[in-house]
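sry for the spam today, last one i promise. struct tokens for design, 200 residues
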């Protein structure tokens, strides 16, 4: 009956965010020669200021479809550990600026779009981890754990996440909402990092 095959949610998310990924990647300083330990620390502080409120909002909204395990996938504690390893105490961490212009998660689909961005970012993290280890001697013990947050499980976790995404029944409108939330997650993150003056 339907000769036209509808794009999967993953296809829609990939197509809908590809350009935003390229744009943000270009502005992140990980491969920039001028990136030094100080800039790296400010970058990580800015990541913390986004992931913290973002994960709180997502995990408390009550709309994430069943099958996603936040305990397994929460990343803010790893960022917190990195900042501590870099020498920040609890008071200094509490005083860090936190993003208030977050994407809106008002539907289960919107949650999925945001989660796609946060989970996908762990893949690029593998590239960044190697670069930061070579250039700044940053490793899991001295401020680089976030870049390898899932460690040897990275590939497995991504595959599991794609299985989760692929098994949820979403109609065309829901897919559209997921893509909008994913796009909004990329742009809120970029605007936040920009406001913290850590981008190129
Ligand atoms: C300089 C920084 C970055 C680099 C070099 C980078 C690189 C990559 C690479 C190589 C992949 C594909 C990995 C694979 O297929 O195995 C990837 C995937 C992805 N990255 Fe990034 N990334 C960066 C930053 C980010 C950031 C900041 C985010 C979001 C906050 C992000 C979100 C994603 C997503 C959602 C995917 C999954 C795409 C898909 O397969 O559907 N990336 N990245």
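last one done:
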């Amino acid at each position: 009956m339907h000769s036209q095959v509808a794009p999967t949610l993953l296809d829609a998310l990939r197509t809908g965010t590809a350009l935003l990924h390229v744009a943000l990647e270009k502005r992140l300083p990980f491969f920039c020669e001028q990136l030094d330990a100080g800039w790296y620390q400010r970058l990580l502080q800015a990541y913390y200021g986004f992931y913290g409120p973002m994960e709180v909002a997502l995990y408390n909204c009550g709309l994430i479809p069943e099958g996603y395990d936040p305990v397994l996938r929460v990343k803010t504690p790893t960022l917190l550990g990195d900042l501590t390893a870099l020498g920040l105490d609890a008071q200094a961490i509490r005083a860090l600026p936190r993003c208030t212009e977050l994407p809106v998660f008002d539907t289960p689909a919107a949650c999925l779009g945001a989660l796609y961005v946060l989970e996908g970012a762990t893949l690029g993290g593998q590239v960044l981890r190697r670069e930061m280890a070579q250039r700044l001697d940053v490793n899991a013990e001295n401020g680089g754990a976030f870049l390898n947050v899932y460690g040897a499980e990275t590939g497995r976790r991504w595959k599991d996440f794609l299985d989760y995404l692929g098994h949820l029944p979403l109609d065309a409108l829901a897919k559209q909402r997921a893509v909008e939330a994913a796009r909004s997650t990329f742009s809120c993150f970029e605007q936040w990092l920009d406001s913290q003056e850590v981008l190129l």
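DSSP finds eight helices and no strands in the chain. ok im logging off now
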